[in-house]
Design brief:
73% of the residues lie in helices and 0% in strands. It is mainly alpha-helical and 133 residues long. It has one domain. The radius of gyration is 16 Å and the shape is elongated.
């Protein structure tokens, strides 16, 4: 899953990278399923800007996963950006627009926790001066 470029990094860094890759791949798969089930406008119930953001995640999630696997700084910067903005967008949808079912706040809470953890670990991971741009 990880390129050989990660081989000399500490175990925690490799494990975190694998977790981020799996998390982003899962997110991308969820958005792909939304498109396969609902067609080209799977988020028609949401405001246009929110639907566009969620649709963009169909490409951004896998892009982040691939960049991390290939050990690019851009992937390590993209992951917390995706997760933090997704947590905010989901929070807006749930608490302001009142979209989602009764379990939606739990999922949004999980995404928020993962976003905060990712944002906290990213500076340490970027500290490796051997990471390509």
């Amino acid at each position: 899953m990880l390129s050989k470029r990660w081989a000399n990094e500490p175990r925690w860094m490799r494990a975190t990278s694998v977790a981020l890759i799996l998390l982003l791949a899962w997110g991308g798969l969820q958005h792909l399923l939304d498109f396969l089930i609902a067609g080209w406008a799977p988020y028609a119930y949401a405001p246009d800007w929110l639907a566009a953001y969620w649709s963009a995640l169909l490409l951004l999630d896998p892009l982040g996963a691939v960049l991390i696997a290939r050990r690019h700084r851009a992937g390590l910067l993209l992951a917390p950006t995706i997760l933090l903005t997704d947590a905010a967008a989901n929070g807006y949808a749930i608490y302001v627009l009142e979209l989602g079912g009764p379990l939606a706040p739990i999922g949004q809470g999980v995404v928020t926790v993962l976003a905060v953890i990712t944002a906290a670990l990213t500076p340490r991971m970027l500290d490796s001066d051997r990471l390509p741009i």
